[in-house]
Specification:
about 240 residues; alpha+beta; Nuclear Transport Factor 2, Chain: A; Glutaredoxin; 5-stranded mixed sheet; 11 strands; about 20% strand
Length: about 240
Amino acid sequence: MPTFSLAPLGRWTPLLAAALLAAGCSSVPPEDTIRQALTERLPNLPKIDEVSKTPMEGLYEVRVNKTEIFYTDRGGNYLIQGELIDTKQRTNLTEARVEKLTALPFDQLPLKDAFTIVRGNGARKLAIFEDPNCGFCKRFERELEKLDNVTVHVFLYPILGPDSITKSEHIWCAADKGKTFGDWMARSVLPTQASCDTTAVQRNVAFGQQHRITGTPTTFFADGTRVAGAVPLERIEQGLAATQ
């Protein structure tokens, strides 16, 4: 079996070590490398807002359009669209991150353009954007009726078509908005025709578009946390408990 000697390389060893060290310790931060690589290779990718480390070694978060999340390696060689799950804590890190990014201070919600439903002592509070023709919203409302000691601010948010606008206007103009809304959403009792100033409904749609409320139901907790979709009641209870 042939053998090889490193003796002839002896005088080059310090230079070789220095070269290898320099190659492995680039002065360019990986965040900058990622940003440059993705910008050059994916010209159709929206402007990158932020690149940051994730808890997973070697994985970086790439944020675009303020709230859209992708993942990549430290060289920007691969781009992943999906959810990052912490298996030890059993938490969805992507979901938690998006909730944080899309949070909206509760006092910035235009509550004058919502109507209020109070159950029990009303100590806890929620705000929900809902379309009266949204099937997920109807299912969600049936679950919310089980909540106690809560104040719910309902924003009519008709984004599913002209009939949604009509129903929203009739609900807004009803003598008892909360009852009319609940009867329709949970018991399919059609709201009766009524007329009044309905510019509040128009303002809700404008507000939602401005703040990227793209689907219904969308719920806001007192701490500003946003949750999209008809999540289980236990998720709502968790959110309420966290803000008490």
